């Protein structure tokens, strides 16, 4: 569904991505693993059209999307749950969800998608008229995911979705991501909970200093001695 080839990205003179190549299969979950500063967020933002790569291609369903503006990428069906949640705190939960469906591909089905999002997140249903900024951290994260789903993405990218959540909510979050995967959603997952993300992943890539240094099935990487030592604390 998505093929990234030979991607280079710079911030001024500093190179953040160096020849990154990876493949995301339709309906699968792809995990991106790497230390702080490895380039994971830069990769997600390049795919989302927020950053413009210097070289390489990003093909989504056969079309090169590298360098297209983010609203176009979004409308082609790539949704992103960014690090830090980015909900609108003074708007209600309902308004935040509705904002997610303003793009053309999502508008017609907004009512159904709204019901579906609330089925997935019953706690949001109880708080529809509450200002989003008064939700707990976990609820805000659920709202950010719900809003992304309102855009009817075919591919959804999660950047550190569990950041700041309690252990119980992290489990809940992984249950939800697993449920989306079971429903056939294509997922890219960047997570500090490396073991949990590899368990979910059909395929995983390890980034170091902007380069892919290792890839394989989630299971294979879980068993890889270098991954165990560097990312699993084993
Ligand atoms: P983290 O888990 O800490 O978010 P990451 O793997 O997502 O790390 P990136 O945020 O993509 O890594 O950063 C990759 C490199 O690019 C780092 O060296 C970082 O310092 C640099 N970088 C990121 N954003 C900028 C920016 N806006 N300006 C300059 N350099 C940046």
TrEMBL record:
Write out the GO MF terms. Answer: ATP binding
The residues covered by the ABC transporter domain are: 2-234
Could you list the residue ranges forming a coiled coil in this record? none
Among CDD domains, the record links this protein to: ABC_TM1139_LivF_branched (cd03224)
Establish whether keyword Nucleotide-binding is in the entry: yes
- SUPFAM superfamilies, A to Z: P-loop containing nucleoside triphosphate hydrolases (SSF52540)
Q: Which UniProt keywords apply?
A: Amino-acid transport, ATP-binding, Nucleotide-binding, Transport
State the superkingdom: Bacteria
The UniProt family comment states: Belongs to the ABC transporter superfamily.
- PANTHER family noted in UniProt: HIGH-AFFINITY BRANCHED-CHAIN AMINO ACID TRANSPORT ATP-BINDING PROTEIN LIVF
Q: What is this protein's name?
A: Branched-chain amino acid transport system ATP-binding protein
Which organism is this protein's natural source? Azospirillum picis
């Amino acid at each position: 569904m998505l093929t990234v080839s030979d991607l280079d990205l710079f911030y001024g003179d500093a190179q953040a991505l160096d020849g990154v190549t990876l493949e995301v299969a339709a309906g699968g979950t792809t995990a991106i693993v790497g230390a702080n500063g490895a380039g994971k967020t830069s990769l997600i933002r390049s795919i989302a059209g927020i950053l413009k790569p210097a070289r390489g291609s990003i093909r989504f369903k056969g079309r090169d999307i590298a360098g297209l503006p983010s609203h176009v990428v979004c409308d082609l069906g790539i949704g992103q749950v960014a690090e830090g949640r980015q909900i609108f705190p003074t708007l209600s939960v309902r308004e935040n969800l509705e904002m997610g469906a303003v793009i053309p591909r999502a508008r017609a089905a907004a009512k159904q998608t709204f019901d579906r999002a609330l089925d997935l997140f019953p706690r949001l249903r109880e708080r529809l008229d509450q200002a989003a900024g008064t939700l707990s951290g976990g609820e805000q994260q659920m709202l950010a995911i719900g809003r992304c789903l309102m855009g009817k993405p075919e591919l959804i990218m999660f950047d550190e979705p569990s950041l700041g959540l309690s252990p119980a909510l992290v489990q809940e979050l992984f249950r939800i991501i697993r449920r989306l995967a079971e429903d056939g959603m294509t997922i890219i997952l960047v997570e500090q909970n490396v073991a949990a993300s590899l368990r979910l992943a059909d395929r995983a890539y390890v980034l170091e200093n902007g380069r892919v240094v290792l890839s394989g099935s989630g299971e294979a990487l879980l068993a890889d001695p270098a991954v165990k030592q560097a990312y699993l604390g084993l």
